[in-house]
Amino acid sequence: METCYVLDASAFINGFQITSKRNYTVPEITEEIKDFESRLKFDAVVNEGLLVIQDVSSLCLSCVNNIISESGDILRLSFPDKKLIALAYMLSQKGESVKVITDDYTIQNTLKIMDIPYSGIITEGIKGIYNWKKVCEGCKKEFPDDYPFDDCEICGSKIFKKRIKVTK
Ligand SMILES: [Zn+2]
Question: Which site from 26, 65, 94, 101 is most exposed, i.e. has the minimal number of CB atoms within 10 Å?
Answer without folding.
Answer: 94
